[in-house]
Write a structure and sequence with these properties.
The complex is a heterotrimer. By secondary structure, chain A is an alpha/beta fold. Chain A has ten helices and eleven strands. In chain A, helix 3 crosses helix 4 and helix 4 packs across helix 6. Classes of the chains: A alpha/beta, B alpha/beta, C mainly alpha.
């Protein structure tokens, strides 16, 4: 078995729970997926779906009262959850990197950009300061930063939001990681800057064969970037498949609801199709399918937790967690 | 377009932040010597004309630094313009008596972007929604409770929850509380400043539907400020595109999306991610958005414009009509 | 109904109380403080003697050891007597009264005054703000004891004058904190919303901004009470505070100072312990309040 056959990331039944004063919240409840080398996975969901916490759990960045309580996270065959903290630190920033929504989560406001980048380089490589700075400048140029030398000497507050995010992305790319987890990195940015960053990420990922998990609530952004999409609801993946399959032939009622409520999917001026009911309350989850209370197709069968299965034989990699999968019925405006 | 009196008519409105009155002789000398520096002035809004007629939904779209939020606040009466005039129902605010000024202010209400910051966390919802109405005599002590319940119901919330605190509600529900608060003073127009930007997609759909329902039921006009062109395309009648404080293009929404004229509008439309575009290469315009403190000379967009020529650097293009109700501020239109 | 739902339904003060009670040390402090306050309130009923009534004192009973029975009155001096024949237990309880009265009284008045000034400065901005804050800076830059001594030397002794002095010195802390918090709150969107709804400025200040400024003011208030009590004790110890006929804890300590070397320790020691216990209790409560009300530590 060659190295290319081992998937970069294989997550099996990941479970992360938050122990709060009000109760135990199953924020990530049995998430499983596989990510091959060089592929982009779009992890999509709304607030409370557990998509960000999934990313944090893989990186090992879950803070109390949250705790990863079950499952396996196989990075190139090695279970990250079993590794001692020192070994995990050696991987973080080196072979696996994360980009956050707020670049100030990565950047220290009182240090200059070059100081921080050099520190990030030296954390995993034994080279001289000058060589580290050179690497930093090259990486900044690669992420499309205009005049990298000037930016290196600047402090984060002197840079715009888009540039700060580019610095954060550059820091993630310094050691050529095999896996990047990006948690809504362009949500807070303008459309034109977002387009630039998406374009650069695309090129970089293709050039280096990096696997990318792009966490977002924006289906349109993910549509342009991802090879596969996984839709999360209440801590579970409810649909997973190639991007064309999921977006053109969504099988799960929640995915259909999400796509249907986009303004672009509705006739101009008409009432938008909306998903009835309210988001899931993680403290009071129904025993079976979490979406059942809001689902038009729900039946008695849905009081048991559905498992992921392939609903259409012609698309073997398109799975859905639903007893009533199928193309949406005629839209009622 | 009808000729009815606009609810809010802004003409030549400019807003500058940080400007100081010009210094006297001593001040000028100090500046010449380099001891003091002239203050950094932010040109947030620069000579904008915009009017909203009863029942109309006018969209303002742009990216950071374009001044759309500042313009919204000027329309709602929360900020005074540095230059230009704002007429509410045809009357300038300066010439009004205090009660008339209050009535003008209540006619235009604002719905804010951040559902967490726009509600006072220490007050109960019933007080948040009912305080102004009670204060201005729209309801009295006896019927206040029913009045508040009616407003909440109209905004799609269960009135039984009115004694709770904001932190007990979700983002979408808090936005509904904000809408109920605005409705409670019986406005004629709502200024929605990125009112759905912070919400999940499914909740966004609910709130947008609510806006459209209120427009049908109450005949409300809207000034809808957003960076999301998809939302603007769906709810607005007319759109104005802003860049660094100026309106660069304005047109009815179908016209703007079908035939965008200004290079910035074209780039904006080309760059929106669309769900139907798969694994695309993203088209980008180069460059960063300049800072409104030091905007480029001439046409503000010229450093990033793929079609810029000499005249663009030196001369500010004026907003002029290029088709019926369609205006654009670009020198390229003159060449044609 | 899940537990979390019912927790959130209560007002913020209930939740603050619930968080506060999580710390056993703070609860102990609160209990101690409550005991002290109760004792002070119930002073006439729980003490055998009114130490301020010179008729009840028996000079012949001066400087008796703790546990000695009194010669004439028929009760025991559990903590001994001081140089004028006062039952130390009674003197301490009545002295606590004065300490608490001065401490809480001055803190309250200073809080109202200082908060008002701070809110005004924040909302008015510009020159008003600058003027008021320079005044605050001036006041805060003087050493407290020195200022207190100067003021008291001018106005003379007495409980009322001590309260006045403390108020004059303390209001600046509240003003500065209230202004800082109010500045933050004034920029919030809910203030814009209130303005847009035509709510008058004074009403926004008192009804919208003030409730949000209370947490840091509460913390300061609690810790300032301890500070005021200490300050009053110091001033009385130096002989510039309360009159000799109505000794507070500080004065009692001062009175007993001269007897320390003759092994009659109790005259200073027990009032000292009482003062210490009170201040420690207040500080424990204040510390926990500060942690509980710190928005960054809240989830």
């Amino acid at each position: 078995m060659s190295a290319d056959d081992v998937p970069t990331l294989e997550v099996r039944n990941l479970q992360t729970r938050f122990h709060t004063r009000g109760g135990v919240l199953p924020v990530v409840d049995g998430v499983s997926f596989t990510l091959a080398r060089g592929k982009v996975l779009g992890l999509v969901g709304e607030s409370g779906s557990g998509k960000s916490v999934t990313g944090f759990s893989i990186m090992g960045l879950v803070d109390p009262p949250g705790r990863v309580e079950g499952g396996q996270v196989l990075f190139q065959g090695q279970d990250l959850l079993q590794l001692p903290p020192a070994a995990r630190r050696a991987l973080r920033g080196n072979r696996i990197a994360m980009i956050f929504q707020d670049p100030m989560a990565t950047l220290n406001p009182v240090l200059r950009v070059d100081t921080q980048m050099v520190e990030a380089v030296l954390a995993h490589r034994r080279i001289g300061n000058a060589a580290a700075r050179q690497l930093a400048a090259e990486t900044l140029a690669q992420v499309g930063m205009p005049s990298p030398e000037d930016r290196l000497r600047a402090y984060p507050h002197q840079l715009s939001g888009g540039m700060r995010q580019r610095v954060a992305i550059a820091i993630a790319l310094l050691h050529g990681p095999d896996l990047i987890i990006a948690d809504e990195p362009t949500t807070a940015l303008d459309v034109t800057i977002q387009a630039q960053i998406l374009s650069e990420m695309q090129k970089l990922v293709a050039a280096r064969g990096t696997s990318l998990i792009w966490i977002s609530h924006d289906l349109s952004v993910v549509a342009g970037l991802a090879d596969e999409i996984a839709v999360m609801y209440a801590g579970r993946i409810v649909e997973h498949g190639p991007v064309d399959a999921v977006l053109d032939q969504p099988q799960h009622p929640y995915t259909q609801g999400l796509i249907g409520s986009l303004p672009s999917a509705n006739r101009r001026g008409a009432r938008l199709r909306q998903i009835p009911g309210m988001g899931p309350n993680l403290l009071q989850m129904p025993p079976g399918c979490a979406f059942a209370p809001r689902c038009a197709r729900a039946s008695a069968a849905c009081s048991v937790m559905p498992q992921m299965h392939v609903p259409r034989a012609e698309a073997p990699s398109h799975q859905v967690r639903c007893f009533h999968p199928g193309v949406a019925e005629a839209a009622t405006a | 377009m009808n000729n009815t009196l606009p609810l809010v008519d802004m003409q030549g409105v400019s807003k500058r932040f940080g400007a100081r009155p010009p210094p006297g002789a001593l001040g000028r000398a100090l500046r010449r010597l380099g001891v003091t520096k002239p203050p950094l002035v932010t040109h947030a809004v620069d000579g904008v004309d915009l009017a909203v007629r009863p029942g109309e939904v006018v969209g303002v779209v742009g990216e950071s630094g374009c001044g759309k939020s500042t313009l919204g606040r000027i329309a709602a009466g929360l900020l005074a313009p540095t230059e230009g005039s704002v007429r509410v129902n045809g009357q300038l605010l300066n010439g009004l008596t205090a009660p008339e000024r209050l009535a003008a202010r209540l006619r235009v209400q604002m719905v804010f972007q951040d559902p967490f910051a726009s509600l006072n966390p220490r007050l109960r919802v019933s007080r948040i929604v009912g305080e102004a109405a009670r204060l201005h005599g729209l309801t009295d002590a006896a019927s206040e409770d029913d009045y508040v319940s009616a407003q909440l119901q109209r905004a799609g919330l269960d009135p039984a929850l009115r004694h709770r605190y904001p932190h007990q509600f979700s983002g979408g529900q808090r936005q509904r509380i904000g809408i109920a608060r605005a409705l409670a003073v019986q406005p004629a127009m709502l200024v929605c400043d990125e009112a759905v930007a912070a919400l999940d997609v499914s909740i966004q759909a609910q709130i947008l539907n609510l806006f459209m329902d209120l427009r049908d039921e109450l005949g409300l006009a809207y000034l809808f400020i957003s960076h999301d062109l998809g939302v603007i395309e769906h709810v607005c009648d007319r759109v104005a595109v802003m860049y660094l404080g100026r309106v660069v293009e304005s047109a009815p929404v179908d016209e703007l999306f079908a035939r965008p004229n200004h290079p910035y509008t074209q780039a904006l439309l080309a760059e929106i991610p669309r769900i139907a575009q798969r694994r695309t290469t993203f088209n980008t315009i180069r460059g960063e958005i300049p800072s409104p403190i030091d905007p480029p000379s001439g046409c503000h967009f010229h450093p990033r414009c793929p079609h810029a020529f000499d005249r663009c650097r030196s001369e500010v293009p004026t907003l002029r009509g290029i088709a019926i109700h369609h205006a654009s501020a670009c020198h390229l239109n003159d060449a044609a | 109904m899940s537990i979390r739902r019912s927790f959130d339904e209560h007002s913020i003060w209930w939740r603050v109380a619930a968080d506060f009670l999580q710390s056993r040390v703070a609860v102990a402090g609160l209990v101690l403080l409550a005991l002290v306050a109760l004792a002070a309130l119930a002073a006439p009923w729980i003490t055998p003697q009114n130490p301020y009534d010179l008729m009840q004192l028996d000079v012949l009973d001066a400087r008796l050891k703790p546990g000695t029975p009194s010669s004439a009155a028929g009760y025991t001096y559990w903590l001994g007597t001081d140089g004028q024949g006062r039952d130390l237990y009674s003197a301490i309880v009545y002295g606590l009264r004065i300490s608490l009265l001065v401490g809480i009284g001055s803190a309250l008045i200073a809080a109202v005054l200082g908060t008002g000034v701070g809110l005004l400065a924040a909302y008015a901005g510009g020159k008003v703000d600058a003027l008021l804050m320079r005044l605050v800076d001036l006041l805060l830059s003087f050493p407290t004891i020195l200022m207190a001594l100067m003021i008291l030397a001018y106005v003379g002794k007495g409980v009322g004058n001590v309260v006045l002095t403390l108020v004059l010195l303390e209001w600046a802390y509240y003003a500065r904190t209230a202004r800082g918090q109010a500045l933050v709150e004034t920029r919030r969107e809910y203030v814009d919303a209130a303005r847009g709804q035509g709510i008058p400025a004074w009403r926004i200040l008192s009804g919208h901004i003030l409730p949000n400024c209370l947490p840091p003011l509460l913390v300061i208030g609690a810790l300032q009470i301890a500070r005021a009590i200490t300050l009053e004790a110091t001033l009385s110890f130096l002989g510039l505070g309360v009159p000799i006929t109505e000794p507070s804890l500080g004065l009692l300590i001062s009175n007993g100072y001269q007897y320390l070397l003759s092994n009659e320790y109790w005259i200073s020691f027990f009032p000292g312990v009482a003062l210490l216990a009170t201040i420690v209790a207040i500080n424990l409560v204040g510390d926990q309040l500060r942690d509980v009300l710190n928005p960054r530590l809240q989830k």
